[in-house]
Amino acid sequence: MKPFVMITRPVAPAAVELLSSVCDILPRIALAERRQGDFYIVAGCTEALLLATPERVDDQLLRDFPRLRALACTFRLPEHIDVAACTRRGVWVTNVSTQWLGREAEIEAARNILDVFSGDIPRGAMNEVLQPAA
User: Beta-carbon neighbour count of residue 16 at 10 Å?
Assistant: First the structure.
């Protein structure tokens, strides 16, 4: 079975195609609206989130995503993400280099998710604590 990925807002079709080659894309639900509709059903299946806009990620939100393994941001400084909380739960947090903008940043974030699913350390990893011992 393919891992499930949620993308929080529309991204470049190339990023969706890249992810779709390995993952199933779940219906998009804004994290700010998580108390509505089928959010908990979708969140319970989600193994990766592609965040295309800054959204708060903390212990409370992470509890809603029990299977989450990767959180990929399309921006450089995810100050609103509690990296320590993600690390405690075994969730990779990734960002993109300043060289990537717009569509390219979305594709790079998708690549970071694929790195996690392939067992590699994602290029944009922010929580090196999860790296395997050498």
Answer: 19
